[in-house]
Design goal:
two-stranded antiparallel ribbon, mainly alpha, 4 strands
């Protein structure tokens, strides 16, 4: 058989592959098809009498559920695209694994994603903390170092925070710094020492410390920090670019309204 005759013969798999491609749909396409099919079904149903309306009701409910599911899918897709674009510019968001489930935690985004432990300075994700608390074990002891988590005095908590801050734990340094500046949480008011702790945490590129310093430069702090909108904005931008949620929200607000030295850019 010649090469020409061989190439002209259709592959036995060709038809099946074409059929497969025809029937393969993306998840999004399937959702849109389901919505269109449900709308078509409802349009074909009579709707003049009260019985007709009652008959249509469960189908309309299903349509609402399908549309809601699609909107959630579309929003997740949009957010994934926005995150991908952000990471192309600024690099991947910093994360550390939860020491229980090993899922990544975006530790720079917000403290609400994790449960911090003053005893050892460790943390786990909020989901694992909730699961442990709801289990028979309960969250009476630190799941990492097994120290008791019984409520202690402010003075004891302050001593633990200072110990963690001296070890270089950035979130503890930030907490100590803010507490000293405002004289709260078992700390005496020592603005100068508090500022030093904030600067130590900021030197580790810890966004919450950078955001705190931004606020201080915007408002000023006695003779320790001079007001500087330019410095405040640079610190806020740095915190935002590191993935800090609150800094990004504040930045968006300034761009929307054109305030605090940011050009209006909705």
């Amino acid at each position: 058989m010649s090469d020409e005759s061989r190439t002209s013969e259709p592959s036995p798999k060709a038809g099946h592959e074409g059929d497969d491609e025809e029937h393969q749909q993306t998840e999004e396409g399937k959702m849109l098809d389901d919505i269109a099919e449900q709308k078509n079904l409802i349009d074909q149903m009579p709707g003049e009498t009260s019985d007709d309306i009652r008959s249509r009701a469960p189908h309309q409910k299903k349509l609402g559920q399908l549309e809601f599911k699609y909107h959630i899918f579309a929003e997740k897709k949009r957010l994934a695209g926005a995150l991908s674009k952000f990471e192309e510019i600024h690099g991947a968001l910093y994360s550390e694994p939860c020491l229980i489930c090993l899922e990544d935690i975006h530790v720079h985004a917000t403290l609400s994603e994790m449960e911090l432990f003053f005893c050892c300075g460790g943390f786990i994700c909020r989901s694992c903390a909730w699961n442990i608390e709801e289990s028979e074990l309960g969250l009476d002891k630190c799941p990492l170092c097994r120290e008791s988590l019984a409520v202690t005095s402010e003075a004891d908590d302050a001593a633990k925070l200072i110990a963690l801050a001296k070890r270089g734990v950035s979130w503890a340094q930030t907490d100590v710094g803010r507490s000293m500046i405002h004289g709260e949480g078992g700390f005496q008011k020592q603005a100068k020492a508090g500022l030093e702790w904030l600067n130590k945490a900021a030197a580790q590129d810890y966004p919450l410390a950078l955001s705190g310093l931004s606020d201080l430069h915007r408002e000023g702090l006695k003779s320790l920090v001079r007001k500087s909108q330019d410095k405040a904005n640079k610190l806020m931008l740095k915190a935002a670019n590191l993935g800090h949620a609150a800094a990004n929200s504040e930045l968006a607000s300034h761009y929307l309204s054109g305030t605090n030295g940011f050009a209006k850019n909705p």
